[in-house]
Amino acid sequence: MPLLEFNDRGIYCPRAQVYIDPWKPVDRALITHGHADHSRWGNKHYLATRSAAPVIRHRLGEVSLTTVEYGQVTTINGVKFSFHPAGHIIGSAQIRVEYGGEIWVASGDYKLENDGLSEPWEPVRCHHFITESTFGLPVYRWAPQEEVFADINAWWRANQAEGKVSVLTGYALGKAQRLLCGLDHGIGRVYTHGAIENTNEVLRQQGVALPPTIRVTSAVPRKDYPGHLVIATPGAIGQPWMKKFGAASVGTASGWMSLRGARRRRGADRGFVLSDHCDWPALLEAIVLTGAEHVYVTHGYTSIFSKYLRGTGLNAVALETDYEGELAEMATKKEDLDQENAAAE
């Protein structure tokens, strides 16, 4: 019996009778992070890191949730579980599973670049490694985030000189806060979409230091926006909510901006290549650092990436899962969008 197996509900540990990031309701779920494709409603009990818990509760309500610190070992029926930083978003974790000398790591979503906000990724040695492949093609290669933010700030200044509002999109948990921390706040004020500000408030309450923001509401006069910047969810673009800003330039921050045509499809004037997932070189580096001989490739370019890994001598297989990578948080929750649209009318 393998220590971990994959079934129609998710990644399962038969000996401990627990799931990791299940996509269907189960009795006991170990959660790598708070994004909706990894942390779903309906499980009887959840286990996550202490820093991921507030957002999970915010999104799922009053669920039965136990928290652990990074590196803390929890033993269930003889199987040892521990959570280790994944560098993806605040509170994100890789889950190490050990029994009888065999070690697996389920990485969830992760990135190697230290963004200065999330707990930095740490390599965890193992025999079996479960990896995403959201950007598992050689074409995906990220510039250092300092260069990306220099471009974003220059774009904001140029829009300001033209009297325009700069609207920058990123998903509400993770990307929005990373953008907020990378902006030059000496340029002007930063306003936020309601779904983003709701998440900001949860993070601030748990002690995360975020720069000041102003929630976009009907109470803010339209004349206050020109020259300043709004961080919005991608789902808000093209909606009535945007009317309040008048002349605006829309920028999108995503790994998908590497692709020709992606900016146009997102309704953006500018695209900035910034992802909370690994690019091609980082995926390969991470796998080497784990020392794993067996690699299981989920969500993304699974067949291409696993084929490449087999060519390097690894035992790599592609898996079908319900994870979505960077697509998971690209739309605003309907209730938030309805609220913002009502405020715009």
UniProtKB/TrEMBL annotation:
Gene Ontology MF terms in the entry: exonuclease activity; ligase activity; RNA endonuclease activity
InterPro entries for this protein: MBL, RibonucZ/Hydroxyglut_hydro, Xnuc_lig_assoc
Keyword Ubl conjugation: no
Record keywords, A-Z: Exonuclease, Hydrolase, Ligase, Nuclease
EC number: 3.1.-.-
Recorded superkingdom: Bacteria
Keyword Nuclease: yes
PANTHER family membership: BLL1145 PROTEIN (PTHR11203:SF49), CLEAVAGE AND POLYADENYLATION SPECIFICITY FACTOR FAMILY MEMBER (PTHR11203)
Matches recorded under NCBIfam families: Xnuc_lig_assoc
UniProt-recorded name of the protein: Ligase-associated DNA damage response exonuclease
